Amino acid sequence: MINKKSLWFLTLFSLILVLSIYYITMPSELMLTTNSNKAEKSESSTPTISVDESDILVALRVEADEEMSKEIEDLQLILTNTESSVDEKNKAYEKIKELNDMRGIEEKLENQIKESYKLDSFVKIDGNQIKVTVNSSEHSESLANNIMRTIQSNYEESKYITVKFQK
Hints:
Blueprint: H1 4-25, H2 28-45, H3 55-80, H4 86-117, E1 120-126, E2 129-135, H5 141-152, E3 160-166
Parallel strand pairs: 2-3
Antiparallel strand pairs: 1-2
């Protein structure tokens, strides 16, 4: 008997396969014509694309959130699996708790940087490493050192902190 997951997998796989075959068999002249039409239109209207300063930080946050939600989803599968042992379920629950706590600490550090330096930032904690991406046109060593000291003041043990400036 086929279950819902298998049915969804087969449906999506079939769709991807059909679209791939369509793309491969599509005449190359059609692609060239479409690209040249777009080039002609873009030359006449030349739209300007501007990247907002916070777009980079938003992209980093979205990527981190997707990563975290995927990991939590995997851990929740362990929790809901009837064949998982009690020890596996406990470890999965503790890992989910740790991930949620880590995200809370990251947000706290971001808020601390915003309050202290009036800068938008993205903080990613990975074990003993803390990566900070700051949205600033000023790339000064003293600002980076001050941010590192501010973050380190929250921890008793030494952390490896990197600060990256993005504009």
